[in-house]
Amino acid sequence: xxxxxxxxxGSIEAExxxxxxxxxxxxxxxxxAEKEELLAALEYERWLADSCREATDPSGQ
Length: 61
What we know:
Elements: H1 3-29, H2 32-56
């Protein structure tokens, strides 16, 4: 494992998880017309965070 790579991926994962939390709050307050766009962004950020986690810990732990 490359420590620099893991550090970068960890930073990306942390930012993506913060964005997921933010978007979830926005989703709860959004008008119905905005919810589809927010949901797509939420799913992308969750995927990004999970992918970074898997790349640094393939066992998923």
